[in-house]
Amino acid sequence: MKRLLMLLLIVLMLVSTGCGIVPPKQSEGVGVKPQIPAAKGEAGKDNPQTEQQKSVNYSEVKPNELGQVMILMYHEIGDKEAEWERTPDNFRKDLQTLYDKGYRLISLNDLLDGNINVEAGFTPVVLTFDDGDLGQFKVKVVNGKPEPDPNSAVGILMDFYKEHPDFGRAATFYIYYPLPFREREYIGYKLKFLVDNGFEIGNHTDTHANLSKLDVNGIQKELGLNLRHTQEYVPGYNVNSLALPYGSVFKEYSKYLLDGSYDGIKYHNKAVLMVGANPAESPYDVEFDPLKVPRVRGSEMNVDGLGIYDWIKYFDEHPEKRYVSDGDPDTIVVPKGTDNRINRGKFTNKRVVVY
Which segments carry the region annotation Disordered (predicted)? Predict the structure, then answer.
């Protein structure tokens, strides 16, 4: 009888061990919980961690995807440093400084869409160029074929990308007509080159017009004709952002900056960029206003403390204000106590993580 009882006891112990729940062993150095709770307003939704999240130590990386993002504004790239002109060497210095400080290029459209695919611990930055000056994209003919001049903005960006592919390659060029980039015979080549190499073309009105001096019809004509002319060179291309010449428009006409039509041409802009002078809010922030997207001047002259190096220094001294990526474009990771600022109505496809 004792032997039978002993056998039963052994069997029960084996069954208990086989069905018992063993706590998962957390990976060494991982600073997140095995299960991420559903975000507010998403109760009941399955919100599992991705493998990428599991490998990120939030306490070390300190992601803050509600931090601010610099959208840099450049004009001419030329021989003489001036208020609205940057020399090729100084532009290279800007890129190298951004790279060394942990910034990585993304396109404006990716920023607006919240498609921020930047390595964990790094910060997105956007480049924009106004006016379509020659120094932004000059052609050099090599063996009978055109290619970007290595001292033009496009040439410098292409070369920097070859040396630092992890920096990214992106910029938006806001052009007007009839002569974008100032070399008539190469207009088509240049616009197609930009699109084929991941750059974007933006609307800067058709004639560099001061929209504050135009009525509704005049505004729509300027924006519609710019789109038409760009699509004549790049058929079907979707121009969907506007940089305001002179940075102004009458408030009552502002809705026509986003949507309008002229002579059968319908245009839609996802964002309107201003002239300056501070970083933009995160696109995930409820305070982000697509009608008034600020930019930082890519200059060191007459910037009144609001140029590129002023803001780089500011973020060095105030890292909590800077956008820091968690490395996963499908999540919005923010510090505790800030998630009430997330625009949940717009980014319903994103998982929210609070740590």
Answer: 37-56
